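Run Cytochrome b through structure prediction, thanks.
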Amino acid sequence: IPYLGTMLVQWMWGGFAVDNATLTRFFTFHFVLPFIVAAATMVHLLFLHQTGSNNPMGLNSDSDKIPFHPYFSWKDVVGFMVLIMSLVLLSLINPYMLGDPDNFI
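Sure, done. The structure for Cytochrome b is below.
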């Protein structure tokens, strides 16, 4: 970025070269970013739940809708349980199957 590029790079690096301050800043950023994304998602879902979504086409699509909670929630719970059970069985029956061969040197 012209006129701001070097200043921005020095601010992000915490100096003129990559150093301990740079690693600390990037580790902190990578730790905090998922929480910021989760909070933004929760706020988005809260606003969407309160106001509802808009319909720019103006078409009425109420006839082919089914409620989310009992049907899709149950489907997600069953899928989650199948995934967890398969991973538990994999780790109990053959725990070294997905391991790196270099671990056995």
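The mean pLDDT is 87.
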